[in-house]
Structures are given as structure tokens and as C-alpha cells.
Design goal:
Number of strands: 21
Structural class: alpha+beta
Low-confidence stretches: none
Mean pLDDT: 94
Radius of gyration: 30 Å
Helix content: 25-40%
Shape: globular
Distance between the termini: 62 Å
Length: 592
């Protein structure tokens, strides 16, 4: 017999009854039933109940074992007594009567329990992540992550994509987040950077004559932690294709994501044909460029109903500034003063002066609330008709310049959907956000900047760059959003050197900077670059959604904490003088 096991702890079934077997694993828990000892033995594959009574030669050892000790058990498989079966366990119809137990490894007192799913402080969970990973929920999440990645790879190769590996040590980029820098020992004073994404390399792969690239790519960004992104590193399904339009990219990516969500989504409905929503429409309708379409509320502009009205606050703002708008947030079934007051309190908690509202009650002309009284029943009814509302419904209003209030309006929309149970929880709603602006105004630097991806093709090409106001130029850029989570950004690339040169010039980068920072790609454009485009769905976020986890920490093997520290391995750490001398680095630390 094998030194440690003839079977795993998840393998035994009634067909094994009567067999002499050997299993090894961790002691999940020990139960003493009046001299009869039950040990739940766990390994990667499952759990088996082990029994030892005082007549068993293994009993003395069984009395000593404690949670998370690693043991080897020899014994005979037998059916569980009637009435003691466990339908929740695949092995729940049998048990192992122990004839010998060997302790392979003892465990010290546990800083956090493996049995159960009690929430523990982040620092303890991350410092003892190897214990945290033994817990059933986290263990299953990590296994599902691997299965999802395997499925993504299979679906990509089935579509004719080929996996390539791009460099990890590369050049620093002036765009995007802050780089992680790696000092060069043999080139004093110079640094490599860890890639924020394989952006330039995957485009160079297309220029090298390859046609369909993908990679499960590690990306590195020195930015603060968020619930949906680990500090330091994350993974994405990086994709690039040659001789494609925007629609070709959509047609390639949709079946991959749809298929993975159908495979691992627990039977929940998945959008079959992803709708396309223009960026500007998404902002106006949902107050966000990553809308949660499970929430059916769609905002509308109702500025005209308040112009020259008796509600002087809004009417005065509209008269004073032609860019002022009033947006309405419908609230079906929210027609009570109590709910409207709660939403007003929510707005104040967000730093807003309040949230105007109207609600409609049975037998009441016009609507109820201060705004209704000020604008009168005719205007109130016109608003109700425009929004398709009726008795028992409400409507909230925000006013000002949209670029200043749209984010709050989106948060209020989300809050209404949650409070009124309008947001469906049992589905995956996808969409494409398209037609992003190529540029935006950088108020801090008082200049035009790229708003999304600097390597995108502007809609209208060189002519648009030369003749249009930069802030009016749209790009062939797109995002995939699922349930309010941005899974991916992508674009049709700018493959013509004269267009790239002009695009960077508008953003304040002369050709010398272009050559210095993006010289490899810029040179490649001079020698025949195919039209190409791609996208990079975030693997961590896909897994988060499919595991129904609110924090990325729950689906990453060894995450860092919110301060970008690896508490398990002690990173970042100090290095000695010898290493610093080899790297030609002298520390200039801030004063404590």
C-alpha cells in the first residue's frame, strides 16, 4: 500500500464498503460521543468521517489528535449506521473504522479557525494566509479561479488565438498609473519597469505578422488598493487581433465571456447579445460609465419643466447658466414621504444639500412634496407622463452642470434601486460602453489629455485630429461592464504613424517624447502596420463576480493588504548595504 494513501478523503463511496484503505489529511474537527471518537479528516478533495472506539488499537492516538494535525489513517470502510448519514457530503454514506493512526505533523494553537467561516481581521487572515486558504469557501474560490482560467484559455484557442508570453522587465511608460521600477545593476542609474499591461508588446506582435494573440497576463501598477483590484498586481485576459473592426473584436470576445459565465455562474441568466451604450448616454442615463443594468432605472433630463417655473432654486440656476440641467431619477413604488426623507438624508450624507422630490398619491391632484407645490400640477403631471410614473411612485431631482453632479446622480440611482428592491440579484447583465471621448480637459495642468488609451484610433482619423475641437473627438474605445463592474477596456489601435504623431501632439507630447517613450512601436509603424485592435478583460474581477465575492482578496491566493504589504512574506522589506551598492543606490528616506 502507498505510504500515505490508497484513496483521497473525497473518494470513498458505498462501493468501497469492506475494503481496507489508507487516507491522509488534516483533522478538521474531533467529536467525542461518550467514548466513541469521530474525526472529520479533510484533504484537498473532500472529507471523510473516521471512527475510533476504545477497542480499536488506534484509539489512544485518536484521543491525542487536535484540529489541523496531519495524520495518516488505516482502516476499514463501512456504511454509516441508519439515521447518521450526511447527505451534504459526497462521502456521507460511509465511514472509516480506524485500525491505525499515525501523526504526520502536529499543529500549534491556531490563530484563526479553519472550521467554519467566521470573519477575522484582515491582518490575521493575510499573515496566516496558508490557514485561511484551508477554509472551505476560500479554497473553493481559488479552485474555481483555476477552472475559469482554464476555460478562458480553451475558449480562446478554440477561436484560433495563440498564447504568447511578453516581457516582464520593460521600459517605463508615461501614461496610466505609477510604475514599479527595478534598478539595473549593469546599467547604473537606469531602471526597468514592470509592465502596467503588455500594451505595446501585443501591438508589436501584430506588426510582426502574427494574427490572433492572447495571454493570461500579469500586470503591475503602483496604485492604492480597491475592493476590485489588488495593490501591486493583477491578471487580465490580454487579447489582440489583426485586420479587425470594432465589431470583429466584440464578436470574438462576447462568446468567450458569455460561455464562461454560463459555465460557472450557477445557472443564473447571462446576457445573450451585449447591448452597445454610448459613453455619453451611459453618463446621462445611469450616472456612470459602468452601469449596473440589473437596475431598470434610467434617468432623464427634465430641464424644460423647471425653466421659468415657481421652483426658484432650479429656475434661477437654469436662467443664470445655459449649461445647467435638471435630471430626474424615477423611483417606481417609492411614493411615500418616509422613503423620500430617507433619500434626502442619503444625499446629505454624501455632502449634498439635499435631494428634491415629488411623489404621487391616490386622489391627489398633481403630486406631493415642496417641489410639486412650487411648480404646480400641470408641470408635475408633465414630468410624471415623461417618466411613465403613476400613483405610488416618486421622482428625485438633481440640478447643476452635469459634469459636476452626474456621479452623485448615479449613486442616488443605485441607492433607489437597492432600497426599493428593483435591482435584480439573480443574473449577469453585460453591456459594451462605446464611443469614449479621445481627450479630456486636465484641470490641474490646464491642458488637453488623453482620456482613455493613447494608442486608440480616433473616429475620423487624421482629418478629425486636424479639424475638430479635441474635446469633441470620439475614439474607437470600448469597455465591457457586467453588473456595474468594469471588466475590461479595449480599443481599435492607431496604426498609422502620422495619426499617432498628431494625436500625441494634441496631448502635449512632441515627436521627441514619442520616440523616447514609445520608440519601438513608433518605429514599427514606419514599416507596415496592419489595422488591429484588442481588449483585456480582468481575470480577478471575472472570478469575483462568479464567486459572488465583494472583495478581490477572497479570490487571490496571496493578496497584499490595503497598504500594499505582504504580511505573510514580509514584503516590501529592507535590503542590505551590499545590495544597494551593487545597484548604485543611496537611500534618501523621509524624516520620521
Amino acid at each position: 500500500m502507498h505510504a500515505y494513501r490508497s484513496h483521497t478523503c473525497g473518494q470513498l463511496r458505498p462501493d468501497n464498503a469492506g475494503q481496507e484503505i489508507r487516507i491522509s489529511g488534516w483533522v478538521h474537527r474531533v467529536r467525542d460521543h461518550g467514548g466513541l471518537l469521530f474525526i472529520d479528516l479533510r484533504d484537498h478533495y473532500g472529507m471523510t468521517q473516521v471512527v475510533a472506539d476504545p477497542d480499536s488499537p488506534a484509539f489512544k492516538t485518536a484521543e491525542k489528535v487536535r484540529s489541523e494535525w496531519v495524520i495518516r489513517v488505516d482502516g476499514k470502510v463501512r456504511p454509516r449506521p441508519a439515521g447518521t448519514e450526511n447527505a451534504d457530503l459526497p462521502t456521507g454514506l460511509v465511514e472509516v473504522f480506524a485500525t491505525d493512526i499515525e501523526v504526520l505533523s502536529q499543529a500549534a494553537e491556531l490563530p484563526l479557525p479553519v472550521f467554519g467561516d467566521t470573519e477575522y481581521p484582515e491582518d490575521i487572515r493575510l499573515r496566516y494566509r496558508f490557514l485561511d486558504l484551508r477554509r472551505e469557501r476560500i479554497h473553493k474560490n481559488i479552485m474555481k479561479r483555476g477552472q475559469i482560467i482554464n476555460s478562458l484559455r480553451r475558449r480562446m484557442t478554440d477561436q484560433g488565438f495563440f498564447e504568447f508570453q511578453t516581457p516582464i522587465l520593460t521600459a517605463s511608460s508615461p501614461e496610466g498609473a505609477r510604475d514599479f521600477l527595478v534598478p539595473s545593476r549593469i546599467h547604473p542609474g537606469k531602471f526597468y519597469a514592470l509592465p502596467q499591461a503588455p500594451q505595446q508588446f501585443k501591438q508589436l506582435i501584430m506588426m510582426s505578422g502574427f494574427d490572433r494573440y492572447f495571454q493570461i497576463a500579469a500586470c503591475f501598477r503602483d496604485e492604492d488598493a480597491r475592493a476590485d483590484r489588488s495593490p501591486g498586481e493583477f491578471y487580465q485576459l490580454d487579447i489582440e487581433m489583426s485586420f479587425v473592426t470594432q465589431e470583429d473584436v466584440f464578436d470574438a470576445v462576447e462568446p468567450v465571456l458569455r460561455g464562461v459565465f454560463e459555465e460557472f455562474g450557477g445557472g443564473l441568466p447571462v446576457t445573450q447579445k451585449f447591448p452597445h451604450i454610448a459613453y455619453r448616454d451611459s453618463i446621462r442615463w445611469y450616472g456612470s460609465d459602468k452601469p449596473d443594468l440589473r437596475n431598470p432605472i434610467k434617468m432623464q433630463a427634465v430641464t424644460g419643466h423647471f425653466r421659468d417655473s415657481g421652483f426658484k432654486v432650479f429656475a434661477g440656476m437654469i436662467a443664470a447658466d445655459p449649461k445647467v440641467e435638471v435630471w430626474a431619477i424615477p423611483a417606481p413604488k417609492g411614493g411615500s414621504r418616509a422613503f423620500c426623507d430617507r433619500m434626502n438624508s442619503f444625499a446629505q450624507a454624501q455632502g449634498q444639500p439635499g435631494l428634491g422630490y415629488v411623489f404621487w398619491r391616490e386622489g391627489e391632484e398633481g403630486g406631493a412634496g415642496p417641489i410639486a407645490k412650487n411648480i404646480g400640477p400641470e408641470r408635475t403631471d408633465a414630468i410624471r407622463t415623461q417618466l411613465g410614473l403613476g400613483v405610488g411612485d416618486a421622482c428625485f431631482f438633481v440640478a447643476g452642470r452635469p459634469e459636476k453632479f452626474y456621479k452623485f446622480a448615479g449613486e442616488a440611482r443605485n441607492k433607489v434601486g437597492e432600497e426599493l428592491n428593483l435591482t435584480a440579484k439573480d443574473r449577469f447583465e453585460f453591456c459594451w460602453i462605446v464611443d469614449f471621448p479621445m481627450y479630456e480637459w486636465n484641470e490641474e495642468d490646464k491642458k488637453v489629455d488623453f482620456s482613455h488609451n493613447p494608442f486608440s484610433m480616433p473616429q475620423g482619423g487624421l482629418e478629425a485630429l486636424e479639424t475638430k475641437d479635441p474635446l469633441d473627438i470620439l475614439a474607437y474605445q470600448y469597455d465591457i461592464v457586467c453588473n456595474g463592474v468594469e471588466l475590461s477596456s479595449g480599443a481599435i489601435r492607431n496604426h498609422r504613424p502620422e495619426v499617432m504623431k498628431k494625436a500625441f501632439e494634441i496631448a502635449g507630447y512632441p515627436e521627441s517624447v514619442l520616440i523616447e517613450k514609445f520608440g519601438g512601436m513608433y518605429r514599427a509603424f514606419q514599416y507596415g502596420a496592419p489595422p488591429h485592435g484588442g481588449i483585456a478583460p480582468g481575470v480577478d474581477r471575472i472570478v469575483m463576480l462568479l464567486c459572488n465575492e465583494p472583495n478581490i482578496r477572497e479570490v487571490v491566493l496571496f493578496p497584499m493588504n490595503q497598504q500594499a504589504e505582504d504580511l505573510l512574506m514580509g514584503a516590501p522589506s529592507e535590503v542590505g548595504p551590499k545590495q544597494l551598492r551593487e545597484l548604485h543606490i543611496r537611500l534618501n528616506l523621509p524624516e520620521a
